[in-house]
Amino acid sequence: MRQLAYILMTLLMLAAAPVSAQEKHVAMRLVAEGSARPGATVTLAIDARPAPGWHGYWQNPGDAGIETTAKWAIPSGWSAGPLRYPVPERLVVAGLMNFVYERPFTLLADLSVPASATAGQTVAVRVHLDYLVCTRELCVPENQDVSTTITTGTAVPDAGTRAAFDHWRRALPKPLGSPATYQIDNGRFRLSVPYPQAAALGEGWFYPLAEGAIAYAAPQSVVRDGDRLVIDTQASPKPKNGQVVGVLATGDGQGFLISATRGVVSPARGGSGGGWMGAALIAFAGAVLGGLLLNVMPCVFPILSLKALSLARGGVGAREARGEALAYTAGVVVVCLGLGGAILALRAGGSAVGWAFQLQDPVVVAVLLILCVAIALNLSGAFEFATPRFAGESGAGGAFATGALAAFVATPCTGPFMAAALGAALVLPWPAALAVFGGLGLGLALPFLLVGFVPALRARLPRPGAWMTTLRRLLALPMWLTAAALGWLLARQLGSSGWPLALLAAGATAAVLWWGGRRQAQGQAFGTSAMVGLALVAVATATFAHSVPVAAAGATVPLGAERFSEARLAQLRASGRPVFAYFTADWCLTCKVNEKVAIETTTAADAFRRGNVAVLVGNWTDGDPALGRFIEKHNRAGVPLYLWYSPGTDARVLPQVLTPGILASLPSGH
């Protein structure tokens, strides 16, 4: 009835004060983020700027208003996803609560491009928008047609466009990841939202996406209760059962998208709670345990060779052992904190980056390839490092360098316990988030730290002897395998230019270091000229890697699988098919092991075929921001991520270490 009265009032006002059909009270334009890669998605933005004194409406307009509708005119086979809205504002007019935008706002939508699209084709995209725009006294229904052109291909957006889209994405509510619970009792709606006590809140307010949850204009009480928020308000006069979805605004235009199921919600106790003892400490403990387990993950095996030589060295005093252990730990923790700080800074800027983001850059991969070849040659005896020596023979300096290298090379892996811990860091304030990344480094360094501080463990190490030289030569093998894996990754990133670049870089590095080693064998110093030559090889390799366009990731998928897109996932789920979706990257060694050991096996394939399971593959090698945002929705900071969708249910996050048995049991519901 209130909406009907509001519309009748608007019609009377329109009749009394007609507005020119040519006048638009919201200036709009359609902007594409970049080119449209065949088989992928490109984000479109409807940049809306209300005239002074006017406002537009959110997806749920509140007690009055109309949601914006979009009708797309796009080529056959292309599809546009739903509009995504930034966090709204509240406006009360005549006792009616409106969810509006009185400032410039931008709606985003993802355009799915078919794999059959022709590269280099220019496509016109147009959208017809019907919307309502109002002042506090007058409302006008308007419509506009806005358009843009998109070129299919792999071109990246210019810096200005990228910055604009980063700004617009920051205004979107971020998926909270953790499920919420609501209860309706005696006309009251009570919502419990998992939210770390240490996380900033600002002015909290809950905006439901649909009717049947709350009375929009009723006051809301938002109270912290330990590691949750409890929102209490008047329930809707006609409450509905089922899931409640909405946005929790946290001030300054920021908010989280939450999904709540009906259950029992205890009233808030109030008080400061034990946030740091809760979410932050749990995440820290998970990070320590995850880092400890990284020591046995495939991506860390080459660095274990360096640590083995350092730990096996005998004749070390207690004080020196403790000093090296602390230096090694410092190297690991510093790198983890540096990477964590970079991730937090980039995410604050709107980028959807995650753990191991630096390996998405061919320059980093090329430099790391050179470093691995150098260490492999050193272990093989081709030359000796000058101070500090990475094999642990130069005290604290070498221990620090070894620890830093261990942490850097460990980044392609996300082991058990790590995923949830790093995901929790996304919603914690930056000091707590950095503590989580520091905990990861502490866990990775823990074995070496224990040996340094526990004499009984050092006493169990074998005595030094000729066997150490043989072991050193054998342990060069995993480092050579790591270098080969990095060369393969470079070839995946740079296409046909990748393998020649990798081979030339490795060959030039070997030649320079062999020359320096020959000088050492003759009793001379390694040589300044050799050091300069090595630096020139690194600079030339990095420069060339930077100049070559990055090849499109995910060009191929395993037989029987499809490339992941949210639109395709929605289609499969709407058809009632179960879906197994996994997210991988060429630089993620854990991902590759799982794929060979569990996913790409006859056992899993037979079970999926019998269960009519659709398999979707998301390749995050090039840091695709659309995949990054989807991964973030599941409270994860990187790959691997494995999701199982049974018909009619939400996603189930699977373990990060898979077996064929785990996958084969999914279609039967186990």
TrEMBL record:
Main location: membrane
Keywords from the named record: Cytochrome c-type biogenesis, Membrane, Signal, Transmembrane, Transmembrane helix
Database matches in Gene3D superfamilies: Glutaredoxin
Compartments it resides in: Membrane
Organism domain of life: Bacteria
GO aspect biological process, one term: cell redox homeostasis
Cleaved signal peptide residues: 1-21
Residues of the Cytochrome C biogenesis protein transmembrane domain: 285-483
Stretches assigned to the Thiol:disulfide interchange protein DsbD N-terminal domain: 29-148
Keyword Transcription regulation set for record: no
Keyword Signal: yes
Name this polypeptide is given: Thiol:disulfide interchange protein
Lineage: Bacteria, Pseudomonadati, Pseudomonadota, Alphaproteobacteria, Sphingomonadales
